[in-house]
Design a protein that fits this description.
Phosphorylase Kinase, domain 1; six-stranded antiparallel β-sheet; 4 helices
Length: about 180
């Protein structure tokens, strides 16, 4: 499958994930550099209300950068097709590590530092472990979603529940694999 964004052709290699806002694909550009092409979708979401999804992604990207959260670089935007092209951060997600029984304790200090920066900027990020990739020992937040800060949704009150084989993590696995 091929996609274009802002006049550039991309060859889609595989689906990386599907979230509330869109489908993310691993793709290559003409120089065979891996990138992520995110196609915004308009599927209903029972627990989240959206307005302008593309505009929100672009706004959130700027807020995350300003807060000092390590995110993949935004490479291109195609407003008509509602597509974003981001740098690809190669590495396992925290979800994959937890599912595989690996200890993610070395990354807790990094995510807590991100959480402090986000809170300092009045934001929460989505702490679900599929949104974090480890490359060369550094943790990256690969989603651009952020929301106004609320204690209920911070790392210690919500996110940490999914960063080990907790009952919440196990329930998510069971639901996902059924």
């Amino acid at each position: 499958m091929n996609m274009t964004a802002d006049g550039q052709a991309y060859t889609v290699l595989r689906l990386l994930g599907h979230g509330k806002g869109g489908y993310s694909y691993l793709a290559e550009d003409g120089s065979r550099q891996p990138v992520v092409v995110k196609q915004i979708h308009h599927e209903p979401c029972s627990y989240y209300t959206f307005g302008d999804k593309l505009g929100a992604e672009l706004h959130d990207y700027e807020r995350l950068k300003a807060a000092g959260i390590p995110v993949p670089e935004l490479l291109a935007v195609d407003r008509t097709a509602e597509r974003l092209v981001k740098a690809y951060i190669d590495g396992p997600t925290i979800f994959e590590l937890v599912r595989g029984g690996e200890d993610v304790t070395p990354y807790l200090e990094q995510v807590r530092a991100m959480a402090a920066r986000a809170q300092g900027a009045g934001l929460n990020i989505d702490y679900f472990p599929t949104n974090f990739v480890v490359r060369d020992g550094q943790l990256w937040y690969i989603d651009y979603e952020c929301n106004e800060y609320m204690d209920r949704w911070n790392f210690e009150n919500w996110g940490v529940r999914y960063w080990s084989r907790t009952p919440e993590f196990e329930a998510y696995l069971k639901e996902r694999e059924s």
